[in-house]
Amino acid sequence: METIIPIRGKVTYPITLDPGVWIFDDRKADLDTYFQNPEEADDELERYTKSISAHWDREIMEGAVFPPTLKSEKKYEKQKILEGTFGIPLKPFLNNAGITADASHLVIEHAEGETELPLEEAYNIILGFSKDGKPLTEDGPVHVYYGDGSNKDNPVKHVRQFRIK
């Protein structure tokens, strides 16, 4: 099974996606809770602002001294990564590829054939890359979930590439 997924077609920059490194990406989302509250899916700037604000508030309230709770928080985050089910939005990768103005659809090529979506829907896709702390080696490297969660119990699996047309 190939673990690298290309984005090709009507793009300025054909790029490749490596799901193996996404566990360290701050854009990852917990798929166990993501589709329960889809209206709470914030944009990247808002998430970043909230993260920086929380850090700033902590510095103001606790000072720069590392309190004993910091170690336990790091341990909890590590445990969450080792046991969590995660996904990442496709939108930033599509933006980085530079989709041309004449493109209208995303084609997901997978083992069972092809799935075609309008670009408007493609920007809301979540790529699942980890289940219970393990990479998706059996039916991966990613699972494709639609942004509305309509296929959360039956995602597109065995993805080989994304093609913009």
Automatic annotation (TrEMBL):
Cross-referenced SUPFAM superfamilies: Oxidoreductase molybdopterin-binding domain
Stated name of the protein: Peptidyl-prolyl cis-trans isomerase
Source organism of this protein record: Mesobacillus campisalis
Domain of life: Bacteria
